[in-house]
Specification:
heterodimer; A: about 80 residues; alpha+beta; globular; B: alpha/beta; FAD/NAD(P)-binding domain; five-stranded parallel β-sheet; 11 helices; elongated
Chain lengths: ~80, ~375
């Protein structure tokens, strides 16, 4: 059964939100949703870029009180 | 108050010694007790492996007897934990003993897992264990030229290592007089050459200056030893004569087996460092799932915060401070120059141009480390 996981990468300069997502993907199953919390506005661009390049699903991004919530689904 | 520390690496050792000093009178009176359980009788200085791969240190320089690093009054047992019984405030060890605790600190570290990538173990050199660093040293000595590719797994211990090994390889081949026969190609998992934007802004032009090519958004998928190519999740590939890998890491198996955290990384409060849902269980170093560097300095700064807090719990009944996400990493930029990055949850790093002075400070710290482990520096 698919899970919804939250990756709290707020304040992460190193390894950073995208690297945290890549690590999270490795521990997830196909169909799992991963929601990345990031205080780096660059995540709203670089996470979708990587997701599209690798072939996972980008489900959306929104900003709430200075925190970006970027949700993706592991597709393969 | 029984304080049990599981793990005798950098984080566990600094924490134990920090606590022993803060609680000296309580240890003497019997009001507090500190016990450490470790899988090894020896303490290993892991950052030294980078230098071992180039023959600049020897293995014996990287070890000390663990007992010799610990303050008097700390009970030390080489008896790794096999079962965590957190609801009973107990752990069970390999020898069959049961240890009770009031406060538990878990600092079991992480381990490279190159075997998770097809072909990586057989077809690459790395330096994350003594055995692999020695093998890499011999391979480098015999290498006469060709295309050298650096490939990086996620997550990995020591976030500066990909850059350091690349710049050090450049100088190594230059010193051997074969740089004109070597083509260095650096790959990295995200869209710039390092996680830290300011470090990437320095490193990318430095690579260009040195004739090192680079490719970003490259996550290792598999290595084809016959074709001598490493393929990425992103659909690209890089041909190599020598592949140097920074392998992905996971937490220790005992953490996964006890279902304390996915991948062996325990969900941890970013400021108080307690395991989520447990007020008397703390986590530090590589064992946490925190979004910060898996590095010795992280364990060091976490251990100092935890030492102050656990001592305050004994003396005052409550912790007194937050861990602020502080990390300090040296960055070797070649054989004889270095810079550093210091940052926390709120403040990004601002690395300065590399100097010989910082390199020699790093060389000195490699020796001074043993005073850090003792909680003196």
């Amino acid at each position: 059964m698919a899970e919804h996981k939250v990756i709290d990468a707020r304040g992460s300069f190193c390894p950073g939100p995208l690297m945290e997502l890549i690590a999270g993907m490795k521990l997830s199953q196909v169909g799992d949703e991963l929601e990345v919390l990031s205080t780096d506005k660059g995540s709203a661009n670089d996470i979708p870029e990587w997701i599209h390049k690798v072939g996972h699903d980008f489900l959306g991004a929104r900003e709430e009180a200075g925190v970006w919530h970027i949700t993706v689904r592991k597709a393969k | 108050m029984k304080i049990l520390i599981v793990g005798g690496g950098m984080g566990g050792t600094i924490l134990a010694n920090n606590l022993a000093r803060r609680l000296a009178s309580e240890l003497k009176s019997g009001k507090a007790r500190i016990t450490m359980l470790s899988a090894s009788e020896r303490h290993f200085y892991q950052p030294g492996l980078l230098y071992l791969a180039f023959g600049r240190v020897t293995p014996d320089e990287l070890y000390r007897d663990q007992a010799s690093l610990l303050e008097p009054g700390i009970g030390f047992f080489v008896d790794p934990v096999e079962t965590f019984l957190l609801d009973e405030n107990q752990v069970k060890t390999k020898s069959g003993r049961t240890f009770d605790y009031d406060i538990l600190a878990i600092a079991t570290g992480s381990r490279p897992v190159p075997e998770l990538i097809p072909g990586l173990v057989e077809n690459s050199e790395t330096f994350y264990t003594e055995e692999s660093a020695l093998k890499m040293f011999k391979r480098l000595r015999a290498f006469e030229g060709g295309r050298v590719v650096i490939a990086v797994g996620v997550p990995h211990k020591c976030p500066m290592a990909p850059l350091e090994i690349t710049f050090m390889l450049h100088d190594y081949f230059k010193d051997r007089g074969i740089l004109d026969k070597v083509k260095l190609h650096y790959t990295y998992p995200i869209g710039r050459v390092h996680s830290l934007e300011n470090v990437a802004k320095w490193a990318a032009p430095e690579m260009t200056r040195l004739g090192i090519t680079y490719e970003t958004l490259f996550n290792i998928k598999e290595v084809d030893g016959k074709a001598k190519v490493v393929r990425s999740e992103e659909g690209t590939e890089a041909a190599f004569d020598l592949l140097v890998s920074i392998p992905a890491h996971r937490g220790m198996e005992v953490i996964e087996k006890n279902k304390l955290g996915a991948g062996g990384f325990i969900p941890t409060h970013r400021h108080q460092l307690n395991m989520e849902g447990r007020k008397n269980v703390f986590v530090l170093g590589d064992t946490t799932n925190l979004p910060i560097s898996k590095a010795g300095s992280t364990a060091h700064f976490e251990a100092e915060a935890l030492g102050e807090n656990i001592a305050a719990m004994v003396k005052l009944g409550a912790p007194v401070r937050d861990y602020d996400g502080k990390v300090f990493c040296f960055i070797e930029a070649g054989k004889d120059r270095a810079t550093y990055a210091m940052f926390d949850y709120q403040n990004p790093p601002d690395p300065k141009p590399p100097t010989k002075a910082i390199h020699w400070f790093k060389m000195a710290y490699n020796k001074l480390y043993w005073t850090s482990a003792r909680g003196l520096l």
